[in-house]
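Go through this pair.

…
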Amino acid sequence: MEKTTIITSKAPAPIGPYNQAIASGNMLFISGQICIDPASGTLVNADVKEETNQVMKNLRAILLEAGMNFMNVVKTTIFLTDMNRFAEVNEVYGQHLDADMNGDRNGYPARETVQVSALPKFVNVEISMIAVK
């Protein structure tokens, strides 16, 4: 099996023994991203919308490094520490997807959202994606 590591300085460096993404064949597996600003290394988390916005920017940077965008995403997993914040996260998530969808809802990926007790660096949201070229 051939696999290629995808690395970009426009997304946060991994904080553990993993890579930002792995490409294998025509598939891209993006590790869960949190709200770390790649330039400063600080958390961007004044509120859950700002946090989600940074997460989506990080995901987009990785997709672009692999020659893709949100149209290529087939599966998303969203981890939240508080399901009561789902609507706010969903709003920002949708805005980022819509930027690449050109109004085509058929381009939206499959998705699940799960509540968890804690996330790395005690953030509120983490998102991972699978994309196909």
